[in-house]
Design a protein that fits this description.
254 residues, mainly alpha, MetI-like fold, elongated
Length: 254
């Protein structure tokens, strides 16, 4: 119990400061609304169903784009990791795209695809693609060469070496890339929804700002942070579970 409190000590302190500051009027409530105002705004949005609708729309967009990223980035990462010569051909182009912020492409994507779902999904893919790709490449390239030699000694085919040695070795790195990618997806979709959307948490925040309803803005920010932490927590569990299973398998093999 004490350990859990220590982990969340900063959040607890900030919450206490927020409550005390609101009571003592340390700042203008328009700039930072009171906890009571935020709770009231959240309850109104929940009763109307708007909050859950915006959350569902943003979540659907994030996971749709993220699954497209997985479908594209992991196979490409494996191919580039196994064949470095192929990777060298695309390295400069990928480097250019990696250093181009996805949100800077929003005006161009709107011109090409309009303000519909396609442009938002593409932004998510661009934001989450490179963490997954680069970690996959790193995982494949860092595979222990001695293990591959052992597989060759036991006359394993290249496909079996790839399936039984390379992929299991690279999987922790791939999961780390996916964990980073889902976080980048949330950042990107909120930015895209604030620029061109009529729904989603980004739109909710922008709408609250335009209507001078800072309590709604805080509700949107809290929802984004909570969903991001939840996604990160789920991927953390998957990563830890896989690492534990791999350690048990290795110990049994020994």
């Amino acid at each position: 119990m004490v350990y859990k409190l220590k982990k969340h000590l900063i959040i607890i302190i900030l919450l206490i400061i927020w409550i005390i500051g609101s009571i003592l009027n340390w700042w203008n409530h328009y700039i930072l609304p009171t906890p009571k105002e935020v709770i009231l705004a959240a309850s109104v949005l929940i009763k109307s169903g708007d909050l859950f609708r915006h959350i569902a729309i943003s979540t659907l967009r994030v996971f749709e784009g993220f699954f497209i990223t997985i479908f594209l980035a992991i196979p490409l990462g494996i191919i580039f990791g196994v064949n470095k010569n192929i990777y060298d051909y695309f390295k400069s182009l990928l480097g250019f795209l990696r250093h181009t912020p996805p949100l800077s492409l929003v005006p161009l994507l709107i011109l090409w695809f309009g303000i519909g779902e396609k442009s938002k999904i593409i932004i998510i893919v661009l934001a989450s693609f490179f963490p997954v790709l680069l970690n996959t490449i790193n995982g494949v390239e860092s595979c222990n060469k001695k293990l591959i030699e052992v597989g060759q000694t036991f006359n394993l085919s290249k496909i079996n070496i790839f399936k039984k040695i390379v992929i299991p070795w690279a999987l922790p790195d791939i999961l780390v890339g996916m964990r980073l990618g889902i976080g980048y997806s949330w950042r990107a979709i909120i930015g895209a929804e604030m620029i061109a959307a009529s729904s989603g948490l980004g739109y909710l925040i922008l709408d609250g700002q335009q209507l001078s309803r800072s309590s709604v803005v805080i509700v949107g920010i809290l929802c984004i942070g909570t969903l991001g932490c939840l996604s990160d927590w789920i991927f953390g569990i998957l990563t830890n579970k896989f690492n534990y299973t791999q350690e048990v398998s290795n110990n049994e093999g020994v």
